[in-house]
Write a structure and sequence with these properties.
- With about 400 residues, the protein is α/β, with parallel strands linked by helices.
- About 25% of the residues lie in helices and about 15% in strands.
- Helix 7 packs parallel to helix 8.
Amino acid sequence: LGSAACALIASKLAYGEHQPCTPEVPRLRFGLIADIQYCDCDDATNFAGTECRHYRGTLQQTERAVALWNSLSEPKPAFVAQLGDLIDGQNAGKYGAGLQFDTPQSEPALERVTSLLMECTVPIFHATGNHELYNFNWEELRQRLQRRSCGWRISSDERDQEGSVRFYFAEKPIPGLRVIMLNSYQVCLMQDSSLPGYQEAARLMKEYNPNDVLSNTQGINFFAGLSGTKLRYVPFNGGVGGEQLAWLRKQVVAAREEDERVVVLSHLPMHRPAASERTVAYDCDEVMKVLHEDGRGCVVAVLAGHLHRGGYALDSEGIHHVTVNSPMTHKEAYGYVDVYADRLELIGTRDLPSRVMPFPKLQPVPFSATPHHNFDPGQDGFGYMQWSITVGSPPMA
């Protein structure tokens, strides 16, 4: 039940009113998990020694997560948001325990995780994380995680200005709600050096990071000499880039003008208080400017992974930033989100905190705000799935 419905029932029982009330039914529900990061290797700490990683145990949690999502009804989840890092980078055999593998384990590791996820009876939206890119290139990822037959999605059918497939997209699962999946590694070092996204990432490293981070030499301290906002400019982070930022602005403006609420999904967090200076996107400030200035209150939440300990913060404009705890470092960390007309409710298991997230107050749109000119949603990632959600529900508050 929603928190409001539970409070109402408790109130009636407290005053001796035993007449049942109708529970509030969510308008939409979706599953949530991040950083499964499976590898068939022994438990170990991270490079900094700040967390213990239980690589093999993530398979059991994935299996339990799927069982939970499949058990839900009224409503059944419309999709699962998988926020990236399905398998660990060590599977590629280039560092850590992977150096002991006879052959790279990227394929069998991914097969083990995806075979469990295939038991899920609803579509899965996949974010691209850094560990996917340690194991596969962009086309290999698309071949493995873009599965139309079961509704899996990691990319758009549209291409960017360079002719490459976009690994970001948007969906409208119900009237009044827009779900935006960002690719927070459009700009990153974990891709072919001929690509514009690599070249931009290399430029940023040379400008902001004094260490030899482009050489791929083992043992380099990425953070030596860095402080403040420069801490984000390390090889395991990334950015959305200018073209995707412009696309995001179009999506947010269209949502604002069509009276929709927005939920943003990403592997990398965008708000430092919900994560850390070391674990946000290179251009998180630019992303937040779009969500604030162009959204005018229509953006409800940003759900991300990457920082395994998790986090939460409410920003100055009322947007909820949830960094989802990792099953690799927690005994039980997955859940689902219920969408109501005026709020989101995150229902987490054990180590993923549950929370109620009221919608921000809509703000007046100033004359100077970005206009919505000749924007055709059909050309920007919609229409991929046929939704079976009952329409006619009240509009989002």
